[in-house]
Design brief:
Mean pLDDT: 78
Strand content: under 5%
Oligomer: single chain
Shape: elongated
Number of strands: 0
Distance between the termini: 65 Å
Length: about 70
């Protein structure tokens, strides 16, 4: 008896963000606040997770600039 094919949802490809300036950092924080309004498990969760990784990485490298904002 052949196996029945079962569709399996594929995870969305996550977006990788890179922040290169204080302006991009501010925009990233604004977008993260917007995405925070969506419920957990929504389609925006991956974008928020990737964006937060980029924000945290930028803050680690630019602690002085991040602290003044």
């Amino acid at each position: 008896m052949p196996f029945e094919q079962v569709p399996v949802p594929m995870p969305l490809q996550s977006t990788v963000f890179s922040i290169g300036s204080i302006g991009e950092y501010e925009e990233a924080k604004k977008r993260a606040r917007e995405l925070g309004e969506y419920p957990n498990g929504s389609d925006h969760a991956d974008e928020l997770a990737s964006l937060m990784e980029a924000i945290i990485a930028w803050e680690k490298c630019h602690a002085d600039a991040a602290a003044s904002n």
